[in-house]
Amino acid sequence: MAVRAVKSEQYLDAPFSKWPLLPDHEDDAVFPPPPPPPSDKQPTWTQTAAGTHVDVTRRIFCNRSLNMRSISAIGFDLDYTLAQYRPETFEVLAHTETVKKLISNLGYPKVLSQWKFDWRYMTRGLIIDKKRGNVLKVDKHKYVKIAYHGFQKMDRDERLATYNTSNMRFSFDEPEFAMIDTLFSLAEAHLFMQLVELQDAQPGLIPPGKDFFTMYRDVRAAVDLCHRDGSIKQQVAADPGRFVHTDLRLVPMLRDLRAAGKKLFICTNSQWDYTHVLMNYLLSGKVGKDRTDEWLEYFDVVFTGCGKPGFFQAPKPIYEVQTATGLLVNTDGGTPMAAIGEEQTQTPAEGGSSAQPVEVAPGGKARVFQAGTYLDLHKMLAITSGAQVLYIGDHIYSDVLLSKKTLGWRTMLVIPELETEIRILLQNTGITQELLQLREQREILDDAIEHLEWEEAWATAAATGNGALPDTGRREREEKLRRLQGERDDIKDRHKDLLDQHHKRHHAVWGQLTKSGYANSQFAHQLERFACVYTSHVSNLTFYSPYKTHRARYNIMSHESERNLITAL
């Protein structure tokens, strides 16, 4: 990788905080969009007659058929699932606090404090190449379509030579690569790009012995420090309305699901104190000293500090949380363990977990635990098969992939950005149709050109024979070939320009979330594989019957496509 020279003064004066806003968005636009407020134009399922249309931006999309009648327990992640953060405040806070840790704890220069973070710049589904200091957009075939070194776009030849024509086939897995598969990762990815720029421009400012890989490791260490000392979450707790969107459909959603006989649980990596703050704000609008534990009435059990994805794999000790004090009580798989001198009131059960079933009477409150494992959860909710559980989260790996592959849980992925993508697609259906038409026209021209080239090859071979007559049609073929090649080149250029316009309407740098070029992106590929259903906001469940069967669309292979069959007829 050739190092791009950047003048230090230019770098310090323009810390890469300016870039084009997303098309069709105002300066104060929020991306991803917040949960929609209740509206008479889109009533909940219980308020509508049978067959009522659900707005496409509120729909639940199905990859694998899901019969909600077979689901007895529904679980929710907290961050970016029940609680959707305001990126213009929360992600900026995360960037600022991470920079502070890099300076104060890891020896990075104070100039970092001058940097600004444009929360619109990054997007989910990208891959960080820690070793080379690059950020990549990859399609489902692991073809790198877009690559940036820092904030400098790699040209086609450099990108192909590095990733697509090398002798090594990249898997894009850890430890050399990192996936930006949650909105939580946007700030740290942007900060890594800034550090790459600084390393290229002024390597003397970076602590000695640091390469791109160790700089990324330092960024991750700084993020972990922020979580451990509470520097981010304390500010959120002090003013949750500044950092978290409200979603007025959450309470009706939870009530309807419980009324349908579903057991509800939370499974979050956040600790009890932070979970308590957010759930009070989300379900009752209570903050500060007004907070209560009434929100626990909506759930059967709450697991905090789960340590996902480990929660779905290795057994861990489980502690019960005393909600009034936040203190932890030792348990034997959920059964409180008596202290010395006190009588044991419950007898632990035998098996993989000694947890006891939990029963929450009407008006009762869920018990709260910390850590533990899925075995404890299954025992508490009387789950006998993973297929009885629907788990809803925002993180493909920690929430969806392992819970589905390891436990057989049914899964829903929450993608707030999906709402914006759908709206842009609806506004630009003409572009999509023209792109398809241009591909068809190019196929026709390719075939005509290949026929002429074949005729020319035969004519040339025949002309070399003894006594061969002059080829009187050569000039005509050559002129026709040049004309067709020119038309094909024009169509190719038009297709390229139009596809580029299409992607820029979604995101000025990275394009459409679910596409890379005209192929599905790596993010979309994982979404299709591991999420049974997906939607823009968790509260979209209110628009559907809690007994509904979500049916996957009919899978069409290339040879089954309607266009191919019509052509054959």
What keywords describe this structure?
single chain; 569 residues; alpha/beta; 11-stranded mixed β-sheet; 16 helices; 38% helix; disordered N terminus
**C-alpha-based Rg, rounded:** 28 Å
What overall form do the CA principal axes indicate? globular
**Major β-sheet strand ordering:** 1-19-16-15-3-9-10-14-11-12-13
Q: Which structural class do you get from the secondary structure elements? A: alpha/beta
Please state roughly what percent of the residues sit in beta strands, choosing from under 5%, 5-15%, 15-25%, 25-35%, 35-45% or over 45%. 5-15%
What fraction, in percent, of the residue positions are helical?
A: 25-40%
Tally of DSSP β-strands: 20
Q: Which stretches are poorly predicted, pLDDT < 50 over at least 5 residues?
A: 1-29, 338-342, 344-351
**Sheet of most strands:** 11 strands, mixed
- Discrete helix count: 16
Task: Give average pLDDT, whole number.
Answer: 87
Gap from first CA to last CA: 53 Å
Commentary on this structure:
- The protein has helices at 8-13, 87-106, 156-164, 186-201, 212-229, 233-238, 240-243, 250-259, 272-284, 374-380, 396-407, 417-427, 429-463, 474-506, 522-530, 562-568; strands at residues 61-62, 66-67, 73-76, 126-129, 134-138, 144-149, 152-153, 177-180, 263-267, 301-304, 318-321, 328-332, 335-336, 367-371, 389-393, 410-414, 515-516, 519-520, 533-535, 549-550.
- It has 569 residues and is an alpha/beta fold.
- Strands 1-19-16-15-3-9-10-14-11-12-13 form an eleven-stranded mixed beta sheet, sandwiched between helices. A five-stranded antiparallel beta sheet has the order 7-6-5-4-8. It has a two-stranded antiparallel sheet with strand order 2-20.
- A hairpin with a 4-residue loop joins strand 4 (126-129) and strand 5.
- It starts with 7 loop residues before the first helix and ends with a helix.
